[in-house]
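Hey, can you fold this one?
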Amino acid sequence: MTTMAKPTIDGVRERSHGQVITPTDDGYEGARKVYNAMIDRRPSVVIRAVDVGDVMAGVDYARENGLDLAVRGGAHSVPGFGTCDGGVVIDLSQMKGVRIDPNRKTARAGGGTLWADFNHATYPFGLATTGGIIGSTGIAGLTLGGGIGYLTRGFGLSMDNLLSVDVVTADGQFRVASAQENEDLFWAVRGGGGNFGVVTSLEYQLHPVKDITAGMFFYPIEKVREVLQFYRDYVANAPEEMGLFPAFQIAPPLPFIKPEDHGKTFIAIVSCWAGPMDKAETEMAKIRGAAPIVAEMVAPMPYYVINGLFDALLPPGLQHYWKASFATELTDGAIEVHAQFGPQVPVVSSTMHIYPINGACHRVKPDATAWGHRDASFATVIAGMWPDPADNAKNTKWVKDYYKALEPHSQAGGYINFMAEDDQGRVKDNFGPHYDKLAKIKRKYDPGNLFHMNQNIQP
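Sure. Predicted structure:
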């Protein structure tokens, strides 16, 4: 009996249409970089896939050689799951076409598409779906982990708008997962993250959204309690066309903020009204009245513009350390914790956001997808992001202390897209009541746990 020879790098090159980059090749240093500069890893090969065949070649090579396999689209994973030491990286960034079907109001997008690409493609049709807050985020990673954004309250999470995905599973086979075929896999990828394969394209339901009204309001830091109490009460019954979140923000040098306030810390509310334009001011006036205003910007704009408003603050190459939690309510005790730690936000790029996940999110049955926290109304992220590695210990401590103080006011699990590398011990809580079912589906599609560079579900 002859044993099959293990695939080689040369074999991968022969099978691949895209670039296959090893440490001796020009461009390796650029190819191995990811968004979080705290992550510095040296994979043995980066495969810049241009089609599904390239992905299959990479999966086969990693599996047969027993190598770590990392997959990335936008490369935004804070824990650095989009890269590895000594293993294989499948980089989907070249697979980013978007095709709109205006009659069905759907979009099919490649696994390497960024939200900026996606929103730009859907905008001329007057259509959109729930995306992230940063335009340079990849659609695949965000969607498979849930997908929280400005349109969540109206249309649900990004994954609630998925109609089908194309997946290359651990055996190197191509599969379509939808409500009609491989239904168990389709259930699992909606909230189970990258545990089940390489998602090479995603089909979304779109909704009529073109121009929105954005509102950014800055209040004195002493008014944290009033602003957060307003937010809590308002968001419970606000029209679902309103997406908003409070944030601690050191004021950047923006034209609507007085020069003497640049560099000061404020409590802010960022809002996106996606309903009829003539009703925007009624809602913005309510937010404006939360506390005395230091600065504000309210303006109509294309939806894709608000999705990129913070991109300049958050370029690639910052140090990142994040913590996250869910809560069913924003308690007075939690507000006290925010009032204590929020004003200590260390630099202009660091922040804390409390995203609302009520409205349409709550109308999806708890067991309809793998998302384990349908009962939560708030998703909090403490996002430490700063330029200087010398500040890593100090700023990481701010994130950890803040998170620990919030713990008594939070659910056990958090949003997997906001988790840090040291959060693997929370995996069962993060997936909540669905963990055992996810583990069973993992055993079927990835019994060897090839896809373990993630918030990992053990088969």
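The chain has a mean pLDDT of 96. Let me know if you want another pass with a different chain boundary.
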